[in-house]
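User: Can you model how 6-O-phosphono-beta-D-fructofuranose sits in this protein?
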Amino acid sequence: MVEKNARRIGVLTGGGDCPGLNAVIRAVVKTAINQYGIEVTGINDGFLGLIEDRMVSLGNDDVSNILTLGGTILGTSNRANPFSYAVKEGEAWVRHDVSAKVIEHYKKRGLDGLICIGGDGTLSVARDFLQRGLQIIGVPKTIDNDLSETDVTFGFDTAVANATDAIDKIHTTAQSHHRVMVVETMGRYAGWLALYAGLAGGGDVILIPEIPYDLKNVARDIRERVRRGKRFSIVVVAEGAKPVGGDMVVKKVVEGSFEPVRLGGVGIKLADEIEELTGIETRAIVLGHIQRGGSPTAFDRILATRFGNEAVHLMAKGENGMMVSIKGDILASVPIENAVGKLKLVPLNSPLLASARSLGISFGD
Ligand code: F6P
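Assistant: Here's the modeled complex, given as structure tokens:
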């Protein structure tokens, strides 16, 4: 149990940046100070700040005017797993366990608890520190919406809005030039982002990792549109989409990262294949980090604020090892242990898939 009378808590943001992180930080600081009189220490660059003892005190003024800001004022890192910290020694990456440093700095700074805002990687590290006696509350974050035990994470709505806006704009060229435009979204191993943006942006073909596609079916459905007088098509493809019997396209492997594999490139590959099979001029657009940039939507600002409030309430109540979550519109909390290590994928019986299929959207199957 967290000491009921926690006087000082730390807050960190780990993993990829995500719209709404600053809204969580703001809510944590304001709730802690104003409601409970708890002091807040901001940790720079995720767990790296705990390894290197880089932290700052956060007061109300420090979090003023950050609600609308994308990114994180604390900085983040997705390469700082203290239990397996990769350091380049000569040509080789060597891993060290520097978790003792984290515990040393946590104690030195007089922290009674830690709020970890992050995705699967950050929360897995947080879980491992629970066993070392740190008191932790997790806040789920990912634009991919693939974290288990919560219906939704902040950042997803903004990423969907950004991707949808891009698809809207891409329609212009698709229509004018009678082209196929392949739009590659992020989302890692889950198809949520492509599915939502594809639906919202009026995609004609949506390819997601959960439904391996057959290229012949994709070409067939594009030709069928041409036959019906639709001389352009928009194909929205998740970076993790793969053909039946084939593999995802890996862009690079980032040594020392929580999740070393970086996907990317399926859109370009697919565009070449579609052009070859259909004879229709085809272009690929990779949306990349634009999707997680910029100001969070109103939905994400509110969700992030509620998550930040709740994390502090849980701390103040003496909870430990729990992650804030939302089910429907009701805030809840679940053991961090239950949320990590298993992805929340698009279920094949999702009503969204049924809705899309009713419109004639192709999934290439
Ligand atoms: O998890 C968020 C995410 O944006 C994924 O959608 C994407 O695959 C990955 O991070 C990209 O990571 P990075 O910014 O490290 O290249």
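A couple of observations from the model: The pocket of 6-O-phosphono-beta-D-fructofuranose is lined by residues 16, 78, 142-144, 186-188, 239, 262-263, 292 (CB under 6 Å). The domain at 157-291 is CATH 3.40.50.460 (Rossmann fold).
User: Helpful, thanks.
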